[in-house]
Design brief:
209 residues, alpha+beta, Alpha-Beta Plaits, 2 domains, four-stranded antiparallel beta sheet, 4 strands
Length: 209
């Protein structure tokens, strides 16, 4: 986040560079060692430590140079959603929203729907059975029980919750915010339309506990 650089532009090129470098010596990859053992077992002799180098080094150098110049243009720039919260947007929140089975937005294109109905909100990810989709580039439609990772202000979140299109995922009882016993911790909460707190007095709601 601090460097404003996406790790996705580096991880795959580094992986391919290590594979290319492994072709230069006998112990570069486990495949080389297996081939050497099979060659010796069939009477052709084992490979020397640097026997592959005359062919492997030029291939590795060409491949690494290609990765250096081509990878930045070919690799996607996928930032961690947390990095999307800039300092000048510190009043915007990342929130997971659950799509009920009978929600009117089932079957909708997530990007088109949010652009039209909630232009100030941004949908970052769509999570379906542990599989993550990126609506900006993945052709996907909203389905029942999807989780939508969105970014927006508190007012935006209250508005979409009051429209009964989505719900907040159920939280576990006894939620622990990891504050020390002697510390004070301030937490900002949104009360959804279905909350049992609606109509209660703050003193009787036990929120301070």
């Amino acid at each position: 986040c601090e460097l404003d650089f996406s790790p996705s532009k580096v991880l795959i090129p580094v992986s391919y560079a290590s594979i290319l470098a492994g072709t230069c010596t006998l112990i570069g990859t486990s495949t080389n060692i297996i081939i050497s053992d099979l060659s010796a077992a069939h009477g052709f002799g084992s490979l020397g430590m640097f026997e592959l180098s005359p062919l492997g080094v030029p291939i590795a150098l060409l491949g690494i140079f290609f990765l250096i110049f081509a990878a930045p243009k070919l690799m996607p720039s996928l930032h961690n959603p947390i990095c999307e919260l800039k300092d000048d947007e510190n009043r915007r929140y990342l929130t997971e929203l659950h799509v009920p089975r009978k929600s009117p937005i089932v079957g909708e294109d997530p990007v088109s729907f949010f652009t039209e109905k909630y232009p100030n909100m941004e949908i970052l990810e769509l999570i379906r059975y542990s599989h993550v989709f990126y609506p900006e580039r993945d052709p996907v439609q909203i389905a029942p029980d999807d989780l939508l990772l969105v970014k927006g202000s508190a007012n935006d979140l209250v508005e979409i919750l009051h429209d009964d299109l989505v719900q907040l995922p159920l939280a576990e009882e006894g939620m622990n915010f990891e504050a020390e016993q002697k510390e004070s911790l301030i937490v900002e909460l949104i009360i959804p339309p279905q909350s049992s707190l609606i109509g209660q007095r703050l003193l009787s709601s036990r929120l301070r506990r």
